[in-house]
Design goal:
The protein contains three helices and five strands. With about 120 residues, the chain is α+β, with helices and mostly antiparallel strands.
C-alpha cells in the first residue's frame, strides 16, 4: 500500500466505558483507556484510529506489562506512534493527559483503503 500525508484534526482521551457499554472482544482488564485520533488526508478523507492502553494517575502509561497477550502489543503500538511522529522523546515519562492537545495539526502518514484506512505505524 502507498502512504499518504494527513494532518491530525482531533485527538481525544476517553475511558473505555465512555465509548462502549461493554468492552470489545480482545480487550482485557488492564485496557481501561482509549485515545481516538482522527486525521484528514490531503484529498479530504478522514481516518480514525483508536489506541487502547491503561492511563496511570500521573498521566503517563507503562509500555511494558506483565501480561504476554495483546495488551502488550497495543501499548507498544502506541509507544511506536509517539516515537515515530516525534510526539514524545521519552515515552515512559510522556504525560498524555496534559499533552494530547499538542497533537492537533501534526503531520502524519496514513494508509488509505477503499472502506477506511489506518495511521501508518512502523
Amino acid at each position: 500500500m502507498e502512504k499518504a500525508r494527513a494532518v491530525i484534526e482531533e485527538a481525544s482521551l476517553h475511558k473505555i466505558y465512555d465509548l462502549f457499554s461493554r468492552k470489545p472482544g480482545g480487550l482485557r482488564f488492564n485496557d481501561t483507556d482509549a485515545i481516538v485520533v482522527t486525521a484528514k488526508t490531503e484529498d479530504g478523507n478522514k481516518i480514525t484510529t483508536t489506541f487502547y492502553f491503561c492511563l496511570k494517575p500521573d498521566g503517563t502509561f507503562d509500555v511494558e506489562t506483565t501480561s504476554r497477550d495483546g495488551g502488550r502489543a497495543r501499548r507498544h503500538r502506541l509507544a511506536s506512534f509517539l516515537r515515530y511522529y516525534r510526539l514524545a522523546e521519552n515515552v515512559k515519562e510522556y504525560n498524555i493527559k496534559e499533552r494530547i492537545g499538542e497533537w492537533k495539526g501534526k503531520n502524519i502518514e496514513v494508509l488509505p483503503s477503499e472502506k477506511d484506512g489506518s495511521i501508518y505505524i512502523p
